[in-house]
Amino acid sequence: MLLRGSNTQTEIERKPRKFRCSARFPKVRRSIQKAFYRWYLDNATRFKVPLRFARRTDSCLEFTFPGLHPYLSISLTHEIGVHVTKRNIWWDALIFFEAYPERIGEEYQCSLCIPEAQTKYPTLNALWCDHLFEPFLEWINDTLVPARWLGIHGFIDEGATWARLLKSERDNPENDPPTSVVPVWISTEYLSQE
Fold first, then answer.
1. What is the structure's pLDDT at 13?
2. I need a labelling partner for 92 at 20 to 30 A (CA). Which of 38, 62, 164, 179 fits?
């Protein structure tokens, strides 16, 4: 590296990187992305289907699962969202896992929680694990993996669109038939047989 005001090249010692990414995850920048990456490395075997990186921007990581219908995707920004996008048009979010960390002295709490339910956490990572990462894992294993159908409701030109997971192709929980129904899983070869 050439320093300004200097006619000679000078090597500058760089601090060794504390964080390394595997080939499956891109370079991550935000602290929540780093925390999720570390948590995922420790908990990958708990997922009934392996998580796969799809795309990264400076503020968002997008994931999917092998065999998952392409209408479904997962995003990690300051929250985790499971989205339905039909033909490149955002249709609905099936669920969001949210936390709004607030530092209180040396501890953290989530200001979205009602005061009676607020828990103090020693680190920001501990709060994220409790409010975002663990509930996300539980939802994936208990709700998404067993789901077989995705009901797509509404039309873009009518201004209202939504989606929901269905137990069967003919499932009609609120007497509101979906506009279309697609399988959640195109391939089930990666789903664990637990």
1. 36
2. 38
- Backbone φ and ψ for 47, nearest 5 degrees, come out as -75, 135
The DSSP secondary-structure symbol of 44 reads G
2, β-bridge pairs:
9
Separation between Cα atoms, residue 25 and residue 52, nearest integer Å: 8
CB 27, CB 21: distance < 8 Å? yes
Interatomic CA distance for residues 55 and 149, integer angstroms = 25
CB 99 within 8 A of CB 81: no
* Cα–Cα distance measured from residue 161 to residue 174, given in angstroms and rounded to the nearest whole number: 16
Q: Which residues of the chain have pLDDT under 50?
A: 1-23
List of residues 6+ apart from 183 with CB closer than 8 A: 69, 148, 149, 150
**What's the pLDDT tens digit per position in 73-125?**
999 999 999 999 988 889 999 999 999 999 999 999 999 999 998 999 999 99
N- to C-terminal Cα separation, the chain: 54
Domain boundaries, the chain: 31-183
Predicted TM-score of the model (pTM): 0.79
Contact between 105 and 121 under an 8 Å Cβ cutoff? The reply is: no
